[in-house]
Design a protein that fits this description.
alpha+beta, endopeptidase fold (from Nostoc punctiforme), six-stranded antiparallel sheet, two-stranded antiparallel ribbon, 5 helices, globular
Length: 176
């Protein structure tokens, strides 16, 4: 009986891990429907020597890095790992999980978002929990862009006006 239970648990473990993976960092089939942009180059208006400028520059150094659950390096990065790593370069410690990051700093209106602020999303509509985070890298003339890591395309810069991100947006927070 004990051996049979152990075998059943070994069969369930991969299923549980897959379920957890799909619920993290913006996993969704909808995330693959974006149109390719002609250019992802976004120039930050923050001073490159300011704290915000350095955090953004470090986050952008991971553009193109593939997605890896729990990743925090060029070999692979998840959404909260990207934010955690970028802020750590300036000795700012944030929680490692996006839903815990969403409790830090001050909640702000999307209209007041600045470069360096965090934007949070709920991409799994069957679970009422924040599971994705991005770092605002540009906000000018009504155009708000953020860097993040997606399961389908890795570390990219997206526009909050894209239908998927706009409908998944939950809140913005200022931690600096």
């Amino acid at each position: 009986m004990h051996i049979e239970r152990h075998r059943n648990m070994r069969k369930l473990l991969p299923l549980l891990l897959l379920t957890f993976f799909l619920a993290s960092c913006g996993a969704s089939k909808r995330s693959t429907t974006y149109k390719k942009r002609t250019s992802n180059k976004v120039e930050s208006t923050s001073s490159p020597n300011s704290t915000v400028g350095k955090i953004i520059k470090h986050a952008k150094s991971f553009e193109g890095t593939r997605y890896k659950f729990g990743g925090t390096t060029k070999k692979g990065m998840d959404c909260s790992g990207l934010i955690y790593t970028a802020f750590a370069t300036e000795d700012i410690t944030l929680p490692r999980i996006s839903r815990d990051m969403a409790k830090q700093g001050k909640r702000i209106s999307l209209l007041k978002v600045q470069e360096g602020d965090l934007v949070f999303f709920q991409t799994n509509k069957s679970r009422n929990v924040i599971n994705h985070v991005g770092l605002v890298v540009y906000n000018k003339s009504g155009v708000l862009k953020f860097i993040h890591s997606t399961t389908s395309r890795g570390v990219i810069i997206s526009d909050i006006s894209e239908a998927y991100w706009n409908s998944s947006f939950v809140q913005a927070r200022r931690v600096l």
